Amino acid sequence: MDLSQLDFVAVLLAAMSSFMLGGVWYSPWLFQRAWLEGCGLTELDLKATNPTWVFGGGFVLSLFIAFGLSLLLGPHPHLGVAVGVGFAVGLCLVSSALGMSYIYEQRPLKLFLINSGYHILQFTLMGLIFGLWP
User: pTM for the whole thing?
Assistant: First the structure.
């Protein structure tokens, strides 16, 4: 696919969806407490971070992810293919790579499941957006 076929609005929307999903996924409503425990962090650690660096960097990386998935899917992918590829990338590539690191680093299974679950949903949601985009 050449870059002239890339729909930058869809890429931006997919990146925003990833960013918003992370906001909910890692919030107190869902997995924040378990995630903090698994990472060995406290709420004070979160407050001590630079939000521009954390959220700005996170959004830029979400843009790279959306851009890459869009290139992989090509222009106007079929909905089922886009969702399936997004799910497969999240499960087979990202989660497996995370899992290898977590095994060697002896990180908690609970942390792996939280982070892996986010990435599976992240890529699936982006695939859904690319598949539904006109």
Answer: 0.94
- Dig out the tokens for 10 from the structure: 């869809």
CB-based contacts of 77: which residues, under 8 Å, 6+ apart?
85, 127, 130, 131
Q: If phi over 0 gives left and psi between -120 and 50 gives alpha, with beta otherwise, what is residue 49? A: beta
Mean of pLDDT over the chain: 96
Note the residue count of the chain: 134
Distance CA 116, CA 48 (A): 25
**Burial class for 77, CB neighbours closer than 10 Å (0-12, 13-18, 19+):** buried
Query: Of all helices (H) and strands (E), which one includes residue 7?
Result: none
In 3D space, the residue among 57, 87, 56 whose CA is nearest the CA of residue 72 turns out to be 87
> If you ran DSSP here, which 8-state letter would residue 49 be given?
S
- Residue 46: CB atoms within 10 Å: 13
Q: What are 121-132's pLDDT values in tens digits?
A: 999 999 999 999
